[in-house]
């Protein structure tokens, strides 16, 4: 869910959480991030991503979507401001030869990949042509207010893209087609109901179009992609789901043991006879154009 599913949302009140952010980033990279691979593939295929693509990835996380675009020959810039531990893993994946060099501060490695710890504005480079594809693969429509940060990213990124360039926005599908939504609702039940951040809400049909409209973008097509969440077992599912940050408010309001217990119970309908966990989900993407 991140950033693969949503950004890492931390609670705004309550006791401070003791989080091993390095371990959480590894759980995200090794378990959760891959869940949206079918979505990345569908978008790249539809838009013909290849050697002529100059891609700006917003909230790039640990870089799996960028890695897939790089395999198609795209020139990449990824920006990530919320999770530097994930970005460090993206550098290991995409710019291993630049470890410890200026590439960590934003220099383009090998002429093909640039990773920036900051906002889109921090990635501005007047010596490079404008981007002809912008992606925001972190799905909205899961937490109340989760589109607000996306609007800020788009406002900074759109001036860096050429006219007519596609901008890809992603959202959760209807709750009845997203098994994981029943598990995420555990976080809402356990967290302080008066807290604004961290409250689950169902995705609405026009969420993506509203974000595009506010950003001054012109919708130009959409699609739905099945992205089941599959885990080797309950322990793997717990690590993957908690790596998203969606359950931080619940942990702060109760404790980790209580959250683990109730999430495990919520996962029970999706456990298979062999112990694996399988949750069907559908995600929607919108292609909008820069005016």
Can you describe this structure?
The protein has 291 residues and is α/β, with parallel strands linked by helices. It has helices at 21-32, 37-47, 64-70, 84-94, 148-157, 180-190, 207-214, 234-242, 248-253, 256-267; strands at residues 54-58, 75-79, 113-116, 133-140, 166-172, 218-226, 229-231, 277-279, 282-289. The strands form two sheets. A seven-stranded mixed sheet has the order 3-2-1-4-5-9-6, sandwiched between helices. Strands 7-8 form a two-stranded antiparallel sheet. Strand 1, helix 3 and strand 2 form a beta-alpha-beta unit. It is globular and about 50 Å long. The model is unreliable at 1-14 and 101-105 (pLDDT under 50).
Topology:
Layout: H1 21-32, H2 37-47, E1 54-58, H3 64-70, E2 75-79, H4 84-94, E3 113-116, E4 133-140, H5 148-157, E5 166-172, H6 180-190, H7 207-214, E6 218-226, E7 229-231, H8 234-242, H9 248-253, H10 256-267, E8 277-279, E9 282-289
Parallel strand pairs: 1-2, 1-4, 2-3, 4-5
Antiparallel strand pairs: 5-9, 6-9, 7-8
* Uncertain stretches: 1-14, 101-105
Rg (CA only): 18 Å
Count of separate DSSP helical elements: 10
**Secondary-structure element series:** HHEHEHEEHEHHEEHHHEE
Oligomer: single chain
> What's the pLDDT, averaged over the residues?
87
Shape assignment: globular
User: What structural category characterises the helix and strand content?
Assistant: alpha/beta
**Share in β-strands:** 15-25%
